[in-house]
Amino acid sequence: MKKKMLFVSLFFLLAVILSSCSAVGVNEKSLRTMSVSGRGEVYLIPDIAYINIGTRSEALDVATALADNNKQAKSISSVLSEMGIDPLDIQTTAFNVYPYQNYGMDGQPMEIKYVVENTVSVKARDLNRLGEILDAVVRSGANQINGISFDIEDRKQAESEARRLAIQDATEKAQELSSLAGISLGEVQNISVYSNGNPQPVYDAKGGGYYAGFSAAPISSGQMIISADANLVYSLK
Looking at residue 170, which CATH number applies to its domain? Predict the structure, then answer.
């Protein structure tokens, strides 16, 4: 009787083990996947520029330094208005007042001067006049140009196209790899798309540059690139 019960127990144990192995095999087969990545890039010519224009003045007293700086700032504002810059496209980004200690050749402290700095960010929409704008503001009193950056006003369509190209690139790679490996693709199980938040400059400037005129500063806008990356996960048949 004991032998019979032992035999039955072993039989059920073996059945459970075989059933578990079969289930694992099915699960492993269903989890066979292939992951591929793709990239999409769209090249655009910038249509706006941001210029950081500053005025710096110094004097032996704060009132004089401030008055001189205000005069410079008003002159620059007037010139920008004459050149068609919308007041809404001009924004103050920094305003500083501080003392400055001068020293003589012997290292001894001399008089203290006061410095006033005023910086505004100007959004230029007509890039053909960018060099002309820079020339005009410098002539009107700006003594600091703290960098120029380019951008694209409306990038939604370009971002959408970059995503489409990224998914297309990943799809083509999946088809190529599956063909080389002799396997069949199933359905897409997961899609991840990552867009580059800001357009990146293309430094070889293919056809995007210009010179704004003889007397104006030469400025080249070049090209910018909007990119997206995609990752697709396929099941395998």
Answer: 3.30.110.170
